[in-house]
Amino acid sequence: MPQIEIYTTPTCPYCIAAKRLLDAKGASYTEIDVTDPADRAQMRARAGRNSVPQIWIGARHVGGCDELHALEYAGDLDPLLKG
């Protein structure tokens, strides 16, 4: 299974929904809380976006919660999670 990283904030409902989907898939992930301005700046530099969540599966930048769920609905998330 590829490494998964997700940039989040504690109260973001989209972050919670994305983590819930990953949890349902049994995927382990590293969560990076961007309430610290330095971590948010790192996320912004890496993703080119300021919104959370920002999700990487392996080297692929998936995007946010909507994009993660779109992968699931298209049947593309499971193969991506398996590498």
Automatic annotation (TrEMBL):
Biological source species: Phaeovulum vinaykumarii
Specify the domain of life of the species encoding this protein.
Answer: Bacteria
Name the Gene Ontology molecular function terms of this record.
Answer: glutathione disulfide oxidoreductase activity
What are the recorded Gene Ontology BP terms? cell redox homeostasis; cellular response to oxidative stress
What's this protein's family per the entry? Belongs to the glutaredoxin family.
Q: Which GO terms describe its cellular component?
A: cytoplasm
Q: Which InterPro entries match?
A: GLR_AS, Glutaredoxin, Glutaredoxin_subgr, GRX_bact, Thioredoxin-like_sf
Domain Glutaredoxin: start-end pairs: 4-62
Q: Report the protein name in the record.
A: Glutaredoxin
What the protein does?
Has a glutathione-disulfide oxidoreductase activity in the presence of NADPH and glutathione reductase. Reduces low molecular weight disulfides and proteins.
Q: Which PANTHER family match?
A: GLUTAREDOXIN 2, GLUTAREDOXIN-1-RELATED
Which positions carry the signal peptide feature in this UniProt record?
none
Q: Which UniProt keywords apply?
A: Cytoplasm, Disulfide bond, Electron transport, Redox-active center, Transport
